[in-house]
Amino acid sequence: MIGNENNYNPPLFFKNGHIQTVYPVLFRKVDSVHYTKERITTFDGDFIDLDWSTNNHTKLAIISHGLEGNTSRAYVKGMVKAMNYSGWDALAWNYRSCSGEPNLKLRSYHNGVTDDLAWVIKHAKKKYPYKEIALIGFSLGGNLTLLYLGRETPDAIIKKAIVFSVPCDLAQSAKALTKPMNTFYMKRFLVLLHQKIKAKMKMMPELINDKDYAKIKDFKAFDNRYTAPIHGFKNAHDYWEKCSSKPFIPDIKIPTLIINAANDPFLPKACYPIKEAHANKNVTLLIPKSGGHVGFVSFNEQNLYWSERMAVDFLNNK
Predict the structure, then answer these.
(1) Those residues with Cβ within 8 angstroms of residue 5's Cβ, 6 or more apart along the chain or in another chain
(2) How do the domains of the chain map onto residue ranges?
(3) Which end of the chain is less packed: N or C, by CB atoms within 10 Å?
């Protein structure tokens, strides 16, 4: 299904997609969120760091962050706060190497690590007797969520999902980020990713290096050199093809809401899965005219963004 595209009205001076994208990163502060930290051991002897925000609710929202994000980002904490206020416990998980400490294995995270998401879900089920779990994902975390729901066999306790700013066609999204107007974002991602490469080099110099890293200018070069070979893909295109969630959207079997803003600078036309949403009665695609990439800025007394109010309404609507 395709939803109403006009139900988000950005504040004055916030209609521009780049402003919507950058403002929350630089200026948004979210208080009243207190995490209980937990480190769990993975199926392959690595670790994942979890941040819980619980109040003995019977429902849990598991939140997956974006590329080079973590659980301290404002968009994650804003969603945690919204969930807690509306009757949900929240579990925000840091991907491998995203909690401030490099993970133990050469492998890290990428758009298709559904095995790690499944492991987190399994742990949450075992730790608390929740009656239902919902999945919330942002950007890379949104793609990961849709991929898990459509390609894998989701746990029966998963009842709903909502995702934002999803690069569901990874090849085309990578291409969009090579545009001159996106140079700032691309450079920032590559700097952050380089820091992780250098941390791994200290741990296992025989397995990874950053020689001539400065020659890497885009995701194609990065994924060809690092993501693909480390994680068992032939090359960047093989990785993108196998881990893009778009082809799997028609196979999603639970109510799922996808929200991709029309002015998202990271998303080209191919990342608006109109045909796929039409083909699946369980999936609703919402394309507001504004919102940027993981933006959807709102100003109100609760300090909740429009995306957070949408998540509350969607998850609590029976």
Answers:
(1) 262, 286, 287, 288, 289
(2) 17-168+246-316
(3) C
